[in-house]
Amino acid sequence: MWKWITKFASPMHFYLLVNRLTPWLGWGAAILFVAGVYGALFYAPADYQQGESFRIIYVHVPSAWMSMFIYMVMAAAGGAGLIWKTKVSDAIARSSAPLGASFTFLALATGSLWGKPMWGTWWVWDARLTSELILLFLYLGYIALQSAIDDKRTAARAGAILALVGVVNIPIIHYSVEWWNTLHQGPTITKLDTPSIHIDMLIPLLIMALAFNLYYAAMVLIRARHEIIEQEKNSKWVQDLIIDKVAV
Amino acid sequence: MNPKRKKILFTIVFTVIGVGIATGLALKAFQENLLYFYSPTQISDGEAPSNRNFRVGGLVLAGSVVRNSNNLNVSFTLTDTMNTVEVIYDGILPDLFREGQGIVANGATNNEGVFIANEVLAKHDENYMPPEVAEALERAGVEHKSSKSQVFP
User: Fold this and answer.
1) Residues 6+ apart with CB under 8 A from B15
2) Angle subtended at Cα A182 by Cα B122 and Cα B145, rounded to the nearest 5 degrees
3) Residues of A in contact with B94 (CB under 8 A)
4) Which whole-number Å values give the CA distances from A187 to A43, A54, A128, A175, B150, in the listed order?
5) Contact between chains at B36 and A183 (C-beta distance less than 8 A)
6) Cβ neighbours of residue B36 under 8 Å, at least 6 residues apart?
7) DSSP state letter for A46
8) Could you say which DSSP state residue A180 is in?
């Protein structure tokens, strides 16, 4: 296991593995996404109170989950980069930030669109919405830091520290609806109880969540691969690769 | 793992734990300011501010909604099953407003203890089900509202 991880951490093996992996992840994400959208729009019944409007949950909830999950990946990869100084983990952390920021924005935007008809307002400063907005600022701060520092190593170190300090926000987002009175409702699925959602509504949601996860996996690996190949452009294996490709 | 890496690992772990504890204490200190709304019980206990606007959250008591036929004026009672607050509102109610629904109103109490709202927001619960299931539950007399609803802190 350890041997496999250290092998994966070498830029060349990472590159070759990603090349093999991404088509599977990408197609898997596409198929699940089509199935999930069909399930969300046609298979799932309308809600007893919200009617058809509840269907925004199929974008909102997976996006919100991804926004937190990607942040944890970014912080963990950043931490691994600090400890083992591996280029691959730095590349994964840096590639995750724009994806995470996009999912956070999507969660906030879809929530806002739903909030206007249902709650009666686009935005409220309750604990859940505010902590999710802070998450967006953490991502944007990380991205700004990466582009502000020219040296890649220094930028990765600074970013990793920011990401690790920001981890404290993740449990706050998750538990905000339980710790404080918020306008946002409590957890439906991620709680130690049976989900308070009908099974026919739950299945498309889980399919969508899986599709979003695979999409992220495919995208982060492709982006990290580009980072790696650019940083390693003077190394022998990249030169060999180019010569091979040209020869073929 | 060599000693240098171990040291960095411990530094990271302690930093994350330290920031976590510091944030936890800060949030605990600001606990009150982070509450989005007060419950009717908190208001009757005098915990709500009297000199500025605040929000009250609770369930709309069944049969308490009185609408004015000439204008948008509406009055209703909010309850947290222990205490109640009278609310008067002049404006458009959100889609989810109905009797038994959790709502949050922003405004202030007047001298008679009536809450004059300038904004009413519906608070949705975490339950999602098709209408047929909701009807079946109602017929069976099952309370399908969340047992630990957020309106009761």
Assistant:
1) A164, A165
2) 60
3) 117-120
4) 23, 15, 11, 9, 11
5) yes
6) A124, A125, A126, A127, A180, A181, A182, A183, B55, B57, B104
7) P
8) S
- Which pTM value belongs to this model? 0.86
Measure the CA–CA gap between B97 and B85, rounded to whole angstroms.
Answer: 17
pLDDT tens-digit map of A8-63: 778 888 898 999 999 999 999 999 999 999 999 999 988 888 888 899 999 999 99
**A79/B12 CB distance under 8 A:** yes
Beta-ladder partners of B104: B57, B121
CB A103 within 8 A of CB A35: no
Q: Rounded to the nearest 5 degrees, what angle is found at the Cα of A146, between the Cα atoms of A141 and A147?
A: 100
Alpha helices (H) along A9-56: 11-38
Structural domain boundaries in chain A: 28-44+52-247
Residue corresponding to tokens 């920021």: A101
**Contact in structure between A180 and B35 (CB atoms under 8 Å):** yes
Cβ proximity of A70 and A103 under 8 Å: yes
SS3 category, A97: helix
For B32-81, write each residue's pLDDT tens digit: 777 788 888 888 888 888 778 888 888 998 888 888 888 888 999 998 88
Q: How far apart are CA A202 and CA A188, in angstroms?
A: 10
CB proximity list for A183: less than 8 A, separation 6 or greater: A119, A124, A126, A128, A129, B36, B37, B104, B121, B123
Residue type, B128: Y
* CA–CA gap between residue A116 and residue A112 (Å, rounded): 6
Nearest-by-Cβ selection for B96 from A49, A177, A187: A49
Tokens linked to B25? 């204490």
- Give CA–CA dist A112/A123, Å, rounded: 6
Q: What ipTM describes this predicted complex?
A: 0.74
Place of tokens 């840096």: A94
Task: Identify whether the C-beta of residue A157 lies closer than 8 Å to the C-beta of residue A82.
Answer: yes
Structural tokens at position A222: 């492709």
CATH tag, B37-139: 2.40.50.140
Q: Report chain A's terminal Cα–Cα distance, integer Å.
A: 34
Beta carbons of B79 and B58 less than 8 angstroms apart? yes
Q: Is residue A112 less than 8 Å (CB to CB) from chain B?
A: no
Residue A32: CA atoms inside 13 Å, Cβ hemisphere, count? Answer: 20
Smallest CA–CA distance, residue B5 to chain A, in Å, is 5
Q: How far apart are CA A156 and CA A93, in angstroms?
A: 8
